[in-house]
């Protein structure tokens, strides 16, 4: 998989560009836009922010629009004009659902939408409202794409940090990936981000198709330091296609109960029973759509039509995390802020029950004898340890994370 590291690096660069622009907008900077660009942004906002049937203001201050499920922004994608919405998956493997977990080692966390006693009406779906500044950031990101390919941005290990594990099996095809992720929380500055995530990928680096999902702390994207669900997709090596969450047409939302960007609560407390959530993406055997399932909730799917190399299968699934920061600012924590260890799972960030979906739609353990770990950082900042199949309630497990150069925000 020679393209794997290159695709990771491209992802980190794009994250950093978004991060930089968000920091400018939040801390007082303002991107200059012409009248023509303002008109274009207004047009895009109309596409993304459809007229809501109902508006919900969450207890966290997010504005959630309840949109007609048949008129959601996904269907403005040029490749989805004739797409017929799929309301439910053709089949769902039950192996990783929380209904089958009776763990004395870790407890299941929850998704807190902040809806309180409200809910979107039938045949509508909740969507976090897109701001004009989000589109300005996305536009700026696209302008910098060509510069990135000519090394306009100099990569530095102090800016982009990742750790991951993956199966090394040349030519093996994957049709999905799943794991329970321990969930953690900590404060970050606006110029920092941190994730725990799974990658599902196929294609050469310059044209890679990628679906990425898990949890993220990203003040520049969400406006706060809460731990939130996130997803990302691209169909052309992070160039002109794809986005975080639902910031562009592509992802089809079907759930009335959960939206991408929702807060995860409670999170783990160091030394106590860890909190964890199951995440899964898999390709529908009948339609070829890629479904996102979080904590037993079928959130929605990425349609087959928007992909090229992922239209049929993936060739890489990866488990790990990313931490990033603007130059001259501290490298943020990853995982639970501590270096990983395999003796006490209440004191480390981990992923467990690491599985993939095979060509028959069956979800099975990854092969613990054919694993490689990857990192682009010093071991005293971040690390990843693969434990293998430790049996009991964990099965295939790894631990990851680290302190970075952590600076408390309490003072």
UniProtKB/TrEMBL annotation:
InterPro entries: Glutamic_endopeptidase, Neprosin, Neprosin_propep. Residues 1-25 form the signal peptide. Residues 155-408 form the Neprosin PEP catalytic domain. Gene3D superfamilies: Outer-capsid protein sigma 3, large lobe (3.90.1320.10). It comes from the Eukaryota. Keywords: Signal. Pfam families: Neprosin (PF03080), Neprosin_AP (PF14365). This is Neprosin PEP catalytic domain-containing protein. It comes from Papaver nudicaule.
């Amino acid at each position: 998989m020679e393209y794997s590291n290159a695709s990771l690096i491209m992802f980190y660069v794009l994250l950093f560009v978004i991060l930089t622009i968000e920091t400018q907008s939040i801390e007082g900077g303002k991107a200059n836009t012409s009248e023509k660009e303002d008109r274009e942004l207004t047009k895009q906002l109309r596409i993304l922010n459809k007229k809501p049937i109902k508006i919900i203001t969450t207890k966290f201050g997010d504005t959630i629009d309840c949109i007609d499920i048949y008129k959601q922004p996904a269907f403005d994608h040029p490749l989805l004009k004739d797409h017929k919405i799929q309301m439910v998956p053709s089949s769902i493997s039950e192996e990783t659902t929380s209904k089958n977990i009776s763990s004395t080692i870790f407890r299941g966390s929850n998704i807190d939408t902040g809806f309180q006693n409200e809910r979107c009406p039938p045949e509508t779906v909740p969507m976090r409202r897109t701001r004009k500044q989000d589109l300005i950031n996305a536009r700026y990101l696209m302008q910098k794409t060509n510069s990135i390919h000519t090394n306009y941005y100099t990569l530095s290990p102090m800016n982009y940090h990742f750790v991951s594990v993956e199966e090394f099996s040349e030519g093996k095809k994957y049709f999905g990936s799943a794991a329970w992720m321990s969930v953690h929380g900590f404060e970050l500055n606006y110029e920092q981000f941190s994730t725990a995530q799974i990658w599902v990928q196929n294609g050469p680096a310059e044209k890679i198709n990628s679906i990425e999902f898990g949890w993220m702390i990203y003040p520049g994207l969400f406006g706060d330091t809460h731990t939130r669900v996130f997803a990302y997709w691209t169909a052309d090596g992070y160039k002109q296609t794809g986005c975080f969450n639902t910031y562009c047409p592509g992802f089809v939302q079907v759930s009335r109960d959960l939206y991408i960007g929702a807060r995860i609560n409670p999170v783990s407390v160091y030394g106590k029973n860890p909190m964890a959530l199951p995440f899964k993406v898999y390709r529908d055997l009948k339609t070829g759509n890629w479904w996102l399932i979080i904590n037993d909730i079928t959130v929605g799917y990425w349609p087959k039509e928007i992909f090229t190399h992922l239209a049929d299968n993936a060739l890489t699934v990866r488990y790990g995390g990313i931490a990033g920061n603007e130059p001259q600012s501290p490298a943020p924590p990853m995982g639970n802020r501590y270096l990983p260890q395999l003796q006490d799972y209440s004191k480390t960030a981990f992923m467990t029950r690491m599985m993939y979906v095979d060509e028959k739609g069956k979800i099975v353990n990854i092969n613990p004898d054919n694993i490689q770990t990857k990192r682009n950082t010093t071991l005293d900042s971040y690390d990843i340890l693969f434990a293998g199949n430790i049996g009991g309630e964990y099965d295939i497990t790894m631990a990851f994370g680290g302190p970075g150069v952590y600076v408390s925000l309490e003072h």
